[in-house]
Amino acid sequence: MKTPKLLLIIAGSLAAIAAVLIAVSCIPPSGPEPEYVCVKNGQPSSGFKDTKKNCPITSESLKAHM
After folding, report:
1. Helix or strand run (H / E) with residue 21
2. In which residue ranges of the chain is pLDDT below 70?
3. CB 44, CB 60: distance < 8 Å
4. 36-54 in b/e burial notation, b at 16+ Cβ within 10 A?
5. pTM for the whole thing?
6. Alpha carbon distance 66, 58 (integer Å)
7. Cα–Cα distance between 14 and 18 in angstroms, integer?
8. What is the pLDDT, as a whole number, of residue 15?
9. What is the structure's pLDDT at 1?
10. Long-range contacts for 59-62 (Cβ within 8 Å, ≥24 apart)?
11. Domain map of the chain by residue range?
């Protein structure tokens, strides 16, 4: 009789820990928005655009803010 009760307690604890970890991961990061570096003509871009400056951004700039 002791083993099923122990397994139930362990399963409940793991479910509670998983719920807390999921809730914490859903909290958005705080801080200022990143400033991206625009590519110069002829340079390869990351494929993403800076919506404020309306220009393609460098891959290095994108990686730095991920």
Report:
1. helix 2-25
2. 1
3. no
4. beebeeeeebeeeebeeee
5. 0.46
6. 13
7. 6
8. 97
9. 58
10. 61/36, 61/37, 62/36
11. 2-64
